[in-house]
Write a structure and sequence with these properties.
By secondary structure, the protein is an alpha+beta fold. Helix content is about 15%, strand content about 25%. The two termini are about 30 Å apart.
Length: about 210
């Protein structure tokens, strides 16, 4: 993966990451996923971004150079992984929402549960991190140099299969069209409107 691909605003990078491969190596073994769903977060210009109110110890990685991994805990339960994008000093990141396991499926299933079907192993950002074995230990990892977590080029997704829609589960800027996913792919998570948002009019259709 070339850093030049990542050194752009998150909403430009997010669709280009579809089809890329995210690999995590741990003492247990290696798991790789092909990315099928992403969400862009535009830093201090984005009310839904962790960086909206400025730099803090928690979000500092988002302000760093492109190509690093920003990991945070969601609702105190799940780890979520973001690829830092844009320019050093300006927060920007792409949440990796879902993927298809292409290496280490037995290990991913051990982590997720023996009864979990293959398409659901890395379906949703929390499940994805659990399948890969990503925790706070990987926060700040260099995705281009490794060695523990690596982002690499994969099979390109044809433009005709890329869909765009509102972000999932956020209450602020929830209607921003910053979610990108592969049409018809069973690993893509279902659309869910945050319960804190009162919809006015129709609700966007899930994929």
């Amino acid at each position: 993966m070339n850093v030049d691909l990542l050194a752009h605003p998150a909403e430009e990078v997010a669709p280009k990451l579809l089809g890329s491969v995210l690999t995590c190596k741990t003492p247990e073994g290696t798991v790789s996923i092909a990315i099928t769903e992403t969400e862009a977060y535009s830093g201090e210009a984005d009310p839904a971004s962790h960086a909206y109110r400025g730099r803090t110890p928690r979000n500092a990685v988002m302000f760093g150079p492109a190509g690093h991994l920003y990991v945070y805990r969601s609702h105190g339960l799940h780890w979520c992984a973001n690829v830092v994008t844009g320019t050093d000093g300006i927060a920007s990141g792409v949440l990796i929402r879902a993927g298809r396991v292409i290496e280490g499926e037995n290990l991913a299933r051990k982590r997720r549960g023996e009864g979990v079907e293959s398409p659901h192993l890395a379906r949703g950002p929390g499940n994805l991190c659990q399948a890969l074995g990503i925790t706070s230990e990987q926060n700040g990892a260099d995705l281009l140099q490794g060695p523990s977590v690596v982002l690499s080029e994969g099979e390109p997704v044809p433009a005709a299969l890329i869909r765009v829609g509102p972000r999932v589960g956020v209450s602020k800027a929830h209607d921003w069209q910053h979610r990108f996913y592969v049409a018809g792919d069973p690993t893509v998570s279902a659309y869910r409107l945050s319960p804190r948002v009162k919809p006015s009019g129709g609700r966007p259709n899930p994929p």
